[in-house]
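Duplicate of #3305? Posting structure anyway:
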């Protein structure tokens, strides 16, 4: 078979069609991982994901190459420092979230207040949620898209959807409680999100160039979804169906949900709504892609290599690659670590993993 472009290879693989080889990519790398690897042999010039991909001969990650279309607040809030000490800053960020951030250590910030507590707060943001605002598209959108297509890159769009985006406005706990305490606000925010998609996306869909739409949700934790599947079916599945209709009518061949955690009970809802599949299949939460495929034949999957076993060394690498071999052979699946590569993965182990995975993906019948 002739060599395919990255876009062609990605879509053919995910659609269970023959490929010259299976894509070789990751979701990304934590900054601390590159810090460690620089001490263990990664060239100093490799300071971001694109450099690592070039250094190790990987494909461009779909996950860090989204079209520049702003589906968040527009205009954003002005990022301001509200308070500053020697050790921390209190910041109001572009989403209007008040947070405390350590100045000298990388860490998850402490969230102090979110911009939406109730209907009145949400009403004040309406002017920032107009999907018809032309400034949501980058000024060089057409030129950028033409270059991506010429290079044969995967053309992807990340859409923050009906759980993920409202959560950013209300905070996780408040948003989950709102399903019970403020159901009308929940319905309004979900369907406003559908309307934003209908207003925002026709311009890009009219190009016919979009390979992949990622529906970003992150709506599950280690043991279960963050909101009950019953409520997801009642309140969110109709919105997913509307979004899928919009995207399919726009020629999008692949629609995937990005949801960390134990997504197992949500997958049938996504599939019933017309979505193709999910990633990154976090093994620590029991979202095993082998089991998900057994339960839901035809479900497209990505990820699912247990980062803990990869970090353990060559034996763990080989065991993980053996485990997913049936999926690799079957198709509709791209193996990579079940989220960003963490800093407990040694560089020597990672390069071993890259080469062993390269062997497998070029020849799925190879015994690992």
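Output from current build:
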């Amino acid at each position: 078979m002739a060599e395919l472009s990255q876009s062609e290879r990605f879509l053919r693989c995910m659609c269970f069609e023959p490929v010259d080889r299976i894509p070789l990519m990751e979701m990304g790398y934590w900054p601390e991982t590159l810090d460690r690897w620089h001490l263990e042999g990664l060239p100093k010039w490799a300071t971001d994901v694109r450099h690592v991909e070039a250094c190790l001969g990987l494909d461009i990650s779909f996950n860090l190459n989204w079209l520049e279309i702003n589906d968040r607040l527009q205009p954003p809030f002005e990022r301001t420092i509200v308070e500053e000490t020697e050790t921390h800053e209190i910041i109001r960020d572009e989403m209007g979230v008040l947070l405390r951030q350590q100045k000298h250590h990388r860490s998850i910030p402490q969230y102090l207040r979110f911009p939406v507590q109730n209907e009145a707060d949400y009403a004040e943001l309406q002017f920032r949620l107009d999907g018809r605002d032309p400034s949501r598209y980058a000024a060089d959108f057409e030129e950028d898209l033409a270059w991506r297509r010429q290079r044969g890159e995967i053309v992807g769009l990340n859409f923050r959807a009906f759980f993920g985006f409202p959560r950013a406005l209300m905070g996780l706990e408040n948003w989950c409680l709102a399903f019970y305490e403020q159901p009308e606000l929940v319905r309004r925010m979900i369907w406003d999100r559908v309307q934003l998609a209908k207003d925002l996306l026709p311009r890009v869909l009219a190009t016919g160039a979009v390979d992949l739409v990622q529906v970003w949700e992150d709506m599950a934790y280690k043991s279960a979804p963050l909101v009950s599947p019953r409520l997801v079916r009642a309140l969110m599945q109709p919105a997913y169906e509307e979004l899928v209709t919009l995207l399919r009518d726009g020629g999008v061949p692949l629609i995937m949900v990005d949801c960390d955690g134990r997504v197992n009970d949500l997958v049938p809802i996504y599939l019933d709504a017309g979505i193709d599949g999910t990633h990154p299949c976090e093994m620590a939460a029991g979202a095993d892609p082998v089991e998900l495929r057994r339960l839901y034949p035809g479900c497209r999957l990505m990820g699912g290599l247990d980062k803990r076993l990869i970090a353990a060394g060559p034996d763990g690498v080989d065991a993980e690659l053996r485990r997913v071999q049936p999926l690799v052979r079957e198709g509709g699946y791209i193996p990579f670590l079940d989220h960003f590569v963490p800093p407990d993965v040694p560089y020597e182990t990672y390069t071993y993993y890259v080469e062993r995975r390269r062997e497998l993906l070029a020849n799925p019948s190879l015994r690992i």
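Confirmed duplicate; merging threads. DSSP finds 15 helices and ten strands in the chain. Residues 6-74+130-362 form a domain with the TIM Barrel fold (CATH 3.20.20.210).
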